[in-house]
Each structure stands twice: as structure tokens, then as C-alpha cells.
Design goal:
Blueprint (H helix, E strand, L loop, with lengths): L9 H34 L1 H4 L3 H11 L3 H20 L2
Helix pairs in contact: 1-4
């Protein structure tokens, strides 16, 4: 399978570009909400202790659309990395 867009038909390239535009628009309009949701998940860590990671996984699986859940997962990872680096 080729990932070179030059090897794709015009229709396939247009479809790929439309999907990229849709995802970028979704990202722009939901980034603040995803950061807030990530902060909420992280704030539960002291209370949930050893079960926190399992609980976060379940929370992420219940989110939709999957692209939004992916954004929240990414923000959780960024915030956890920042917290670990500041120690």
C-alpha cells in the first residue's frame, strides 16, 4: 500500500484532505474541553490510587467520538509527563 499522495487518484486525495480538514476543525473546537477533561481525570488520581489507570481507561473508552477520546488521552499523557518532569 502506497502512502504517497501522488499515487492516489484526485478523488482519493480530495477525500484524504477533507478528512484532515474535518479532524483539524474538530481538534480546534474541542482542545479546551479535552484539556479540562484530562485535568478532571488526573484530579481523581489521589482518590482512586492503584485503580486510577484502569478507571481512566474505562472513562476514555466511554467517550465519543473516538477522535475526542484520543485527544483527551493525549492531554492526560502530556499533563502527567509535565508533572513528572517538574519533580
Amino acid at each position: 500500500m502506497s502512502f504517497n499522495l501522488a499515487n492516489k487518484s484526485f478523488e482519493e486525495r480530495a477525500q484524504i484532505e477533507a478528512e484532515k480538514a474535518r479532524l483539524f476543525e474538530m481538534w480546534q473546537s474541542n482542545l479546551g474541553k479535552a484539556k479540562g477533561e484530562a485535568a478532571r481525570l488526573i484530579s481523581e488520581k489521589p482518590r482512586r490510587k492503584g485503580k486510577w489507570a484502569e478507571w481512566v481507561r474505562a472513562e476514555l473508552e466511554s467517550m465519543s467520538p473516538p477522535e475526542y477520546a484520543s485527544m483527551v488521552r493525549s492531554e492526560v499523557n502530556k499533563m502527567m509527563a509535565a508533572a513528572n518532569n517538574s519533580r
